[in-house]
Amino acid sequence: MYKSAVVTGATGFLGRHVTSILLRRGFEVSIITRDEEKAKTLFANVPVKIITGSLFDPALLRDIPEHSAIFHCAAITGSVHTHQRAYIKANVAGTRSLLQAAVDKKAAHFIFVSSISAVGARGSVQHPITEDTIPDPETYYGLSKALAEQMLLEQAPAQLPITIVRPPLIYGPGQNARSGAALLFKLLQRKIVPIVGNKHARVALVHVHNLCNAMIDLSLNHSGKEIFNVCDPTSYVLNDLAELINPPALRRRFLTIPYPLVAPLALLGSGISALCKRDFGLCLENLNGISKNGFVMNIDKALSRGYQPEAFLNNKGALD
Questions:
Q1: pLDDT tens digits, residue range 133-163?
Q2: Which CATH number fits domain 4-175+205-235+296-304: 3.40.50.720, 3.90.226.10, 3.30.450.40, 3.40.47.10?
Q3: Residue 237 to residues 25, 86, 201, 243, 299, Cα–Cα distance (Å)
C-alpha cells in the first residue's frame, strides 16, 4: 500500500492522465520532467510537486520522496527513424537509473509502462498473446522495452514490488496526433480505406483511463514482480472500429490490398531497419500486427487481479 506517487513523463499523453487520476483518487503526487514551464502550465493550480531534470541526474533523483510508488511513463516511443542507441539510452539506461533511485528512496512500488511491442506480433485470434508468450520483438523500440523488462525483473531487489504493464495502442482525450492510435483512426476516417488482408482483422487498443486505473489497481493488489497485458476487454474488428469512430452518415469503401503485394515492401523495410539500426513504419511486425491479428492479447490475468476497464470506444466521449 502507498499514499504518494512519483510520475515520470507527466507532460506526455499517458503521464498527464496518470497524474490526474492519481490526484483524483487521493494520492499525493510528484512529477519528474525536463520541461518545467510546460509542467507548470499543464498542472496550474494542481497540488503536484515538480522535480525538474533528467533521469540521469543523481541530484535530481535525490528529490524523490521516500516510500512512494514510482510510475515510470517516460520513454522514447515507437518513432520512425529513431536510432537503436537512443532507444537503449532512454528506455533501458533511464529505467535503470530510476530503479536505483527507487531503491535508495525505499520506494513502495515500481510501475513500468512497457508495450506489447516488447513481445512482437506473435498473437492470433485463436492464440492471443499472454504474459507467458516468449518475447521476440522486431522493432528497436520493442527490443528496448523487452530489455528494460528483463533488467527490472533481474536487478530489482526482492523487497521492491514491480508491476510491468504491456499496453497496445493507447487512445483517449488529448492523444498525440502522431501516435499509432491517432494514425490508425485517421486512416479509418477516409472515404476510401485501404486495408491489407481483410477488413475483419482485429486490433487491440486500450483507453488511456483504463490503462491508468489498471496501473494503480494492479500495483495495489500484489507485492511481487508481475507482468500484465492491459487492453480494452475486446479486440476491435477494423470494419467495426471504422463504424465507431465515424459519423453514422459517412459512407466509406474498403479497398482490400492483398497481403502478398505488401509483404515484400514490409520485408524490405525490416531489412533496411536492421541495416541502419533504426525503426521504420513499414516492417513485417507492424504489417502482421494490423493485418494478421498479431497484436491480439489475452488479459485474463489482469482481470483476475483487479483490472476493471470502464471506458470504451463505443462510449460517448471516449475521445473527447
A1: 999 998 899 999 999 999 999 999 999 999 9
A2: 3.40.50.720
A3: 33, 34, 6, 10, 17
